[in-house]
Amino acid sequence: MAVDVHTHLVPKGWPDLSVACGGDGWPWLRIDSERAAMIMVGAEEFRPIGPQTWDPAVRRADMDADGIDVQVVSPTPVFFAYDRPAGQAVKVARIFNDLTLETLAGDDRFVPFCQVPLQDPDAACAELDRCLAAGHAGVEIGNHVGDKDLDDAGIVAFLNHCAETGTPALVHPWDMPGGPRLDRWMARWLTGMPAETHLSLLAMILGGAFDALPASLRICFAHGGGSFAFWLGRLENAWHRRGDLVRGCSQHPPSHYLDRFFVDTVVFESASLRLLVDTLGEDRVLVGSDYPYPLGERPVGEVVRKAGFLTAEQQHKLLSTNALHFLGVQHGLGRAG
């Protein structure tokens, strides 16, 4: 079995969000043809999309071509609505979570993850519970809510609820800062995303979130954990040499927490994958692709399958076993389960 833990969808049929939820400036879909559309935010083009984002048959064909048995399917972060009043974000989450289940139609090759109104922890817990009862298997969250990082007390309370309910959480970077130096060459995606994920892991460690949360929490950071693995040595050095400024609320050095989280394999190069495995361990890295977006990996899992430094047992862990552990599944999934 091969499991891809990091894919996205944009379900068809979502309503005019300004009417359904109130407010204005919402994302909307410009239909350009039967096989092409554009996610718009106001008058601005955000991202072109095709049937891979909404048609399960197209997804299954691509999975078959890439040798992927099961996809974890998560929201596209532009719809998180964390910057909106909580009541509006609740409505958006309900719309997209319900449409996700309708789109995937119970196909056991797809594992649906929901979104929640993370700016309101109580509402986020309530929506998670509703979604788990309806058929979702996990949750995707953004790496911050405005200026609140993952060590914020409310977000920690939500993650504790995930641990209590046995819900896996995928952390995805979003809402990267822009500006003249970052708005060209897709620099927000090429430099901002890795930095955002790195900062989130720092917050979980130095902000004391991992110390406050039970070890049973299963949490995965997208895009290989950003730049964290490469700069762990710098962080460790700073924690020991400038503990007066760096240690924050952490009870242990950063390297102590490496068994508390997973990362995916969206790093594209064998040398980068080796760094992840060497740094985090062979049990903490699992296949992801960012399918179906153009900055993702295709064929999915190729960086693992072509990594000559991995043994057959290690490849099996990265392709399958680690994902089952993250998802809390004992005996397999989908068509190979």
UniProtKB/TrEMBL annotation:
Please state the Enzyme Commission number of this protein.
4.1.1.45
**Start and end of every Amidohydrolase-related domain?**
3-328
User: What does UniProt give as GO cellular component?
Assistant: cytosol
What is the protein's name according to its record?
2-amino-3-carboxymuconate-6-semialdehyde decarboxylase
Q: Which residues form the signal peptide?
A: none
Q: Does the keyword Transmembrane apply?
A: no
UniProt record, GO biological process: secondary metabolic process
| Superkingdom of the organism of origin | Bacteria
Q: Which family does it belong to?
A: Belongs to the metallo-dependent hydrolases superfamily. ACMSD family.
Q: Which UniProt keywords apply?
A: Decarboxylase, Hydrolase, Lyase, Metal-binding, Zinc
Any one GO MF annotation of this record: hydrolase activity
Subunit note? Monomer.
Q: Which Pfam families match?
A: Amidohydro_2
Record bears the keyword Oxidoreductase: no
Pathway-wise, it operates in: Secondary metabolite metabolism; quinolate metabolism
